[in-house]
Amino acid sequence: GKDKGWLTAEYAMLPGSTNTRKRRSTLKPDGRSVEIQRLIGRSLRAAVDLTRLGEVTLTVDCDVLQADGGTRTAAISGAWVAVYDALESLAKRQHRLGAKHYLFGQVAAVSVGLVDGKVICDLDYKHDSRAEVDMNVVMRGDQFVEVQGTGEAGVFSRDQLDSLLDAAGVGIATIQAAQRSALGLE
């Protein structure tokens, strides 16, 4: 009844996604999963013009098949491809000119960190587990949607922060190119 749509996300790490079997979430997601679902939803909503959707709800399922660090950022980047594909289908049903009718832009995310004093982009578990600084960066085009950073082993400087954000920008540009390629847009 509000003449606009909504986009929400569900996130789960499947039982075989980790080295040791993760218990299946049967009744309700744990706090970590809820926080990640909210991050994914916020990130994707930054890309979608909800007023153009009409009274449509998009629910994006993000199930982790194989975890090796950066699952939340991988979920965001993959989910944007799924959203674009869903909006293409919606555009056909609503006689629009394609997914771009509903979009503000392209969203992608990457994890970055400082490991042994060096900037690493797209942290795997080996790096993530010993990072001095761990950061998740979400961007729409070249603008930030969300930045989550933590000094895991102390503090970090403004210069280090700038280096991490620069690395994230390069990584996200690469991911955005892969997203466009997956959708046949390049």
Order of helices and strands: EHHEHEEHEEH
- Morphology: globular
Instruction: State the distance separating the first and last CA atoms.
Output: 38 Å
Low-confidence stretches: none
Biggest β-sheet: count, sense, barrel?
4 strands, antiparallel
Please give the count of helices: 5
User: Which structural class should the secondary elements be placed in?
Assistant: alpha+beta
Fraction of residues in helix: 25-40%
Strand order of the largest sheet: 4-3-5-6
Determine the strand fraction and express it as a percent band.
Answer: 15-25%
Tell me how many strands there are: 6
Calculate the mean pLDDT score and round it: 90
Radius of gyration, taken over Cα atoms and rounded to an integer in Å: 17 Å
Could you please describe the fold and organization of this structure?
β5 (133-140) and β6 form a beta hairpin. The chain is globular and about 55 Å long. The strands form two sheets. A four-stranded antiparallel β-sheet has the order 4-3-5-6, with helices on both faces. Strands 1-2 form a two-stranded parallel sheet. The longest helix is centred in the C-terminal third of the chain and has 25 residues, at 158-182. It has helices at residues 31-45, 50-53, 71-93, 125-128, 158-182, and strands at 6-13, 57-64, 107-115, 118-121, 133-140, 143-151. It is 38% helix and 25% strand. The protein has 186 residues and is an alpha+beta fold.
